[in-house]
């Protein structure tokens, strides 16, 4: 009995990619199935960054295929190919930036900037080329979180473009790099919006798969400017479980929906506090708020993170948790969050570049 493509596909359909929530066949990830006698070679292409996931995924699928009768060896190759995805209809994609992701919150103090920094670093650990734009002009903090010394200034190319700074493998641009740390931005909305557009369009980003935009809190001029003039493929909403934060987060979700930017999911910070002395667990800010918000708007709860001193202290020290303690449980949550965000974008189905056709080679 010879091995058939149908038999191999049947095996692959039994395994669900935890990031796409689909099997690789249904998700359209199978690029080729090659059958040479009792040997099977499969090529799978993931449309999101998954460097820490793909080898284990390939091994699991290969072992499953080898359980087929008449198969003595199966080789599964999993590649990550990140393409540009369509943003708002009227906007063209930016040069050297494939996908722009907004990280937003309805109110301040919910850990938005910390989430943006860890999301960027987690995507970079998965093998993506990542940049961070600190658009929180009134309170820029990404320079501190990435450990960039105070007073560091970006170089200027041909008097036209800023060269982004780089830390921990991530390109970074912030208004904080252009002003003194002690100088408040006492600007009105139009000035802030103009400065934001300049930062985005006049920064010479170097071939990015993802640009993470750390938005200022709220739903005012700056948010509308970004939504209407910058090609954003999706937004991540950050909240805490408390009712007040959820109320403002809902406004953020509604704003992005009104300007036709998909909400990729919700991140809930400070979900639970575990006492470092006795281990007692307590929901200081309420329980299940992020889950309810995600369910109400039919989006994914991307991550639920504890109120942790480590998250705060590591970010303050210029090495966020994702790189300061990459094997910790919290870092693993951030990694899963990053893969889920990438997968949600990949599943949007609006790829600018044409994907390759499926190829099957058999010796019968």
UniProtKB/TrEMBL annotation:
Q: Name the positions where ATP binds.
A: 106-113
Top-rank taxon: Bacteria
Give the GO molecular function terms. Answer: 4 iron, 4 sulfur cluster binding; ATP binding; ATP hydrolysis activity; ATP-dependent FeS chaperone activity; metal ion binding
**What is any Pfam family matched here?**
ParA
Q: What range(s) does the MIP18 family-like domain occupy?
A: 5-76
Database matches in InterPro entries: FSCA_dom_sf, MIP18-like, Mrp-like_CS, Mrp/NBP35_ATP-bd, NUBPL-like, P-loop_NTPase, YlxH/NBP35
Sorted alphabetically, the Gene Ontology BP terms of this entry are: iron-sulfur cluster assembly
Assembly and interaction partners: Homodimer.
Question: PANTHER family from the entry?
Answer: IRON-SULFUR PROTEIN NUBPL (PTHR42961:SF2)
Tell me, in a sentence or two, what this protein's role is.
Binds and transfers iron-sulfur (Fe-S) clusters to target apoproteins. Can hydrolyze ATP.
The record's comment on protein family reads: In the C-terminal section; belongs to the Mrp/NBP35 ATP-binding proteins family.
Q: Which NCBIfam families match?
A: PRK11670.1
Q: What is this protein called?
A: Iron-sulfur cluster carrier protein
């Amino acid at each position: 009995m010879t091995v058939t493509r149908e038999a191999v596909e049947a095996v692959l359909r039994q395994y669900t990619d935890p990031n796409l929530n689909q099997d690789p066949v249904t998700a359209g990830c199978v690029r080729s199935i090659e059958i040479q006698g009792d040997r099977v070679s499969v090529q799978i292409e993931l449309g999101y960054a998954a460097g820490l996931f793909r080898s284990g995924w390939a091994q699991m699928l290969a072992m499953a295929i080898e359980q087929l009768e008449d198969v003595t060896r199966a080789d599964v190759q999993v590649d990550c190919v990140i393409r540009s995805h369509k943003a708002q209809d009227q906007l063209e994609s930016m040069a050297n930036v494939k996908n722009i992701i907004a990280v937003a919150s309805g109110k301040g103090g919910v850990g938005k900037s910390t989430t943006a920094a860890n999301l960027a670093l987690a995507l970079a650990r998965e093998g993506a080329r990542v940049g961070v734009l600190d658009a929180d002009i009134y309170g820029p903090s990404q320079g501190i979180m990435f450990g960039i010394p105070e007073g560091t200034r970006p170089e200027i190319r041909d008097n036209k473009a800023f060269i982004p700074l780089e830390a921990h493998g991530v390109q970074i641009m912030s208004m904080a790099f252009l002003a003194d740390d002690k100088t408040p931005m006492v600007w009105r909305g139009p000035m802030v919006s103009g400065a934001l557009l300049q930062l985005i369009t006049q920064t010479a980003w170097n071939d990015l798969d993802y640009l993470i935009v750390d938005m200022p809190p709220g739903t005012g001029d700056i948010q509308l400017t970004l939504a209407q003039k910058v090609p954003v493929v999706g937004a991540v909403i950050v909240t805490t479980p408390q009712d007040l934060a959820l109320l403002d987060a809902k406004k953020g979700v509604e704003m992005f929906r009104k300007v036709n930017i998909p909400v990729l999911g919700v991140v809930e910070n400070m979900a639970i506090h575990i006492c470092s002395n006795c281990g007692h667990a307590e929901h200081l800010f309420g329980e299940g708020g992020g889950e309810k918000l995600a369910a109400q708007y039919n989006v994914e709860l991307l991550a639920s993170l504890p109120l942790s001193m480590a998250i705060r202290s590591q970010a303050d020290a210029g090495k966020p948790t994702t790189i300061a303690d990459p094997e910790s449980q919290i870092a693993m949550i951030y990694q899963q969050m990053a893969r889920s965000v990438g997968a949600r974008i990949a599943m949007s189905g609006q790829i600018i570049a044409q994907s390759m056709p499926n190829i099957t080679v058999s010796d019968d």
